[in-house]
Design brief:
By secondary structure, the chain is of the alpha/beta class. Helix content is 40%, strand content 14%. An eight-stranded mixed sheet has the order 3-2-1-4-7-8-9-10, sandwiched between helices. A two-stranded antiparallel ribbon has the order 5-6. The longest helix has 23 residues. The relative contact order is 0.14.
C-alpha cells in the first residue's frame, strides 16, 4: 500500500516516451496527480481543462519544474458533447458538485449528471477506441504492457435518466448518484475490454479539500463548507490514490473500485437482484443517450 507517502521513481514505473491526459487538471487534486507522473519522466502531459487561463497558469508551473516534458493545455468543457472528440495514461478527474440545480441547455441534462457521468462515459468510450486500436500504442511500451484508464463515479425511476433532470428532486445526493452511475457502467464495460489491452478502474481518493467542488456555495453555507473542508485530505495526500491506480495496481484492478489505495467492494446494492436490474437499465439508457456518437459500434468493435 502506498499510503500517503510520495511515490518513488523506479525502473518498473518509468514513463519515458509515454503520454498522459488528465481532465480537470487545473484543480489541485489533478495537479498534484500530474507531479509524480512528471517526476517519473512522463514525456507528454495533456491538461484537459474548461478554463484555459487557469490551465495555462498550472501548466506554466509544471513546465518550470519539469522543463524536459512536453506539457499542453487542451480546452475541454465536459458540460457539452461538442467538446468531446496515442495515449498511454488517461485519468478522468473532471467533475462538478453544485448547490443549485443547473440545466445544460445544449444537452437538456442537469449539470452534475452531465459532467460527472454522461460526458465522462462518452469520453471514456471515445478514448478507449484510441487506446485499443492505434497500432502506435502497441509499439510504444514493452510487450504485454496495457494502457491505463482510471475514472477519479433515483434507482426506482424507469426510465432512470429523466429523473436526474427534474429540479424538484435535485439535491446534494445527485453528486453521489452520478458517481454510482459510473460504477454501474463499469460493471458491464469490462466485458468488452481485455486487461491485456487497457486496464480500466475507478479510483476514489476520499474527501479531499481545496478541489473547488461546491464553488457556487454562498454565505453561511460557504462558511460551513470551509470549516468542514478542514477535515479532508490535502490534494498532495489524495492525489497519490489516482497515481497508484494508474501505476501500481496493474491487471488485478481491472474493473475494480479503488479507494484509499485499496480495492474495495462496490456498493452492496449492485450485488442484489434489484441492483442487477438497475445496472442494465443504466447501461441501456447510456448507450441510447450516446447513440449519436456511435458508441454501440465502438463497443462491438472492442468485443470483436
Amino acid at each position: 500500500m502506498v499510503g500517503s507517502k510520495d511515490l518513488q521513481p523506479s525502473a518498473a514505473s518509468a514513463l519515458n516516451g509515454k503520454t498522459a491526459i488528465i481532465t480537470g487538471s487545473n484543480n489541485r487534486l489533478a495537479y498534484e496527480a500530474a507531479l509524480p507522473l512528471l517526476d517519473l519522466k512522463l514525456s507528454h502531459l495533456i491538461m484537459a481543462v474548461r478554463n484555459s487561463a487557469k490551465g495555462e497558469a498550472a501548466a506554466a508551473k509544471l513546465r518550470q519544474s519539469h522543463p524536459k516534458a512536453r506539457i499542453e493545455v487542451w480546452l475541454l468543457d465536459m458540460s457539452s458533447y461538442s467538446q468531446l472528440s496515442p495515449i498511454d495514461i488517461l485519468i478522468l478527474n473532471a467533475g462538478v458538485k453544485n448547490i443549485r440545480f443547473n440545466l445544460v441547455k445544449s444537452t437538456g441534462h442537469e449539470e452534475v449528471f452531465q459532467v460527472n457521468y454522461l460526458s465522462t462515459m462518452l469520453l471514456t468510450l471515445l478514448l478507449l477506441l484510441l487506446l485499443l486500436l492505434l497500432p502506435i500504442l502497441k509499439a510504444k511500451g514493452p510487450p504485454g504492457e496495457p494502457a491505463h484508464l482510471t475514472i477519479s463515479p433515483n434507482r426506482d425511476a424507469n426510465p432512470l435518466f429523466p429523473s436526474f433532470n427534474d429540479p424538484m428532486t435535485f439535491s446534494q445526493e445527485n453528486y453521489n448518484s452520478s458517481k454510482l452511475l459510473a460504477h454501474m457502467f463499469l460493471w458491464n464495460l469490462v466485458d468488452y475490454v481485455n486487461a491485456d489491452d487497457v486496464i480500466i478502474n475507478i479510483s476514489d481518493p476520499a474527501w479531499v479539500k481545496g478541489t473547488e467542488l461546491l464553488s457556487d456555495a454562498k454565505g453561511e453555507m460557504w462558511v460551513g463548507l470551509k470549516v468542514f473542508e478542514q477535515t479532508g485530505r490535502t490534494p498532495k495526500v489524495g492525489s497519490p490514490c489516482l497515481v497508484d491506480a494508474v501505476l501500481s495496481k496493474g491487471k488485478v484492478s481491472h474493473g475494480c473500485f479503488l479507494m484509499s489505495w485499496e480495492i474495495h467492494p462496490f456498493a452492496a446494492f449492485l450485488y442484489t437482484p434489484e441492483g442487477k436490474v438497475v445496472i442494465q437499465r443504466v447501461w441501456d439508457e447510456t448507450l441510447a443517450e450516446l447513440d449519436f456518437a456511435g458508441v454501440g459500434q465502438i463497443l462491438e468493435s472492442m468485443k470483436a
